[in-house]
Every structure is written in C-alpha cells, then in structure tokens.
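Appendix B, record 7
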Amino acid sequence: MEVPKPLCRVECPGGRWRRLGPGTQPGSGPGAVGGAALELEHRASPLLPVFAVALANRRCVATASRGNFLRMTSVITGPVYVVGDNIDTDQIIPAQYLNLVPTIPEEYEKLGSYALSGLPESLYPVRYVRPGALDSEYPIVVAGRNFGCGSSREHAPIALGSAGCRVVLAESFARIFFRNCVATGELYPCELVERLCDRLRTGDVVTVNLDELTVTEVATGQVHRIKPLGDVRPVIDAGGLFNYARKTGMIASNPGC
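Structure tokens (predicted):
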C-alpha cells in the first residue's frame, strides 16, 4: 500500500490518517472516509497506535512502511507560528469548545480547527488555522514565557496536536500545560535556552532536532539550543501515558493492535 506524502517532513513516532482535502482522490484509497480525501501525516497520538490507522473503520492497518513509523529520529522541519508571553489555555482553545470529546475521531478533528483561535486578531492577524480549515500550516509554535498558563485543560495540547503542531518551543511553560503535553503525547514541549519569539517571525522555517537539542534556522543556518526533555521524552515518544504504559508492560495492550 502506497503511503501518501506528509504535509511537512516530520520524523517522529506515530502516524494517523488526516483529512487534508486536495492531495488524494476522494473516495479512494485506504484513507478515504465518506468521500473526503485523506493523507497520512506522521503523528504521535494518545488515541492511536504507532502505525497507520484508517479512521474509516477504526481498526489498525499495517502498511509496507510500518517500520518508518517506529524509527524515532524526531527531526521536525517546517514553518513556525510565533506568539508572545503568557499565552493562556483560553487562547489556545476557548472554553466554548471544551464540549468536544477528543476520543471521538470527528470531534478530535474539529478541535484542531479551533487551536489558538482565542488569540486576538488585532495582535495576530495571521491565524494559526485558516478559517474553514482543520489543519494548520505551522507544525512548530514558538512562544515566550509561561506558555499554557491559566486553567487546567487537556484540550489545549490536544487541540494543537490535532491541528498538526508537533512541537512548542517556549522560553518557559506553565507546569500544568507541560504535564498535559506529556500525558496526552500530542506534542513536544521544549524549553529554549534563549528567547526566540523576538527573533523569529511567523512563516520562518526551522528544523528542530530533539536528539541533538537544536533549532536551526533554515534560511541563515543559525543554530539555537533547547533543553533536554529528560525522562518524559520516551513517554511523549510513545504517544502519551497510556501508550507508554502499554509499551512498557504496565498495562495490557489493546487486543488486535
């Protein structure tokens, strides 16, 4: 089975079928759901195993490229979306969307369309997710201090992950947001050694290497450092606490996956 090309080059564990619109023929292929075109996008998700899943019938599907999903090189290249200090969870995912249930695939998809929709348009005229889209063009978010502050809601990292965010690079994180990133496995919360939200602009392309702890500006070659994730890295690699517990034998694996 041919695996479609992902939206951006992301070499990290996990994979799932995403509704992308143009790119594959509607109603055909293993990822077709209700006539909507889907492609495979590399992704770690707490809701799915670490290989391709067709949401058409919600069962595990082994592919010829399954080994690629299990190779944890963790190099992420793409354009960044830059925000400032004290971005709270109500800006990441406004409260009116918290009735969406992430374990329901259709509602998980919809959550992504509202990611960072609480940001004021006067300060952020370029929206993280374009109106009418389900996915963002920016797999990397660059932030200032105290990203994810405010109320405790696991929907915040889940919404970002559903939209296609793979990593948030921040000067610092609110502790509850950091813990929710680890618990859900939706994205990597990486602390920067230096402040980058004043240097980079939305749309700049960087490469994040989680193994070498580097952020490289593609245009200039300038290299910046991130702090190691430490013991939480393998938990996020596995796709969150439950997947990590299954992987390490703490709890029984799901039958048939």
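Remarks on this record: The longest strand covers residues 75-82. Confidence is low (pLDDT under 50) at residues 1-72.
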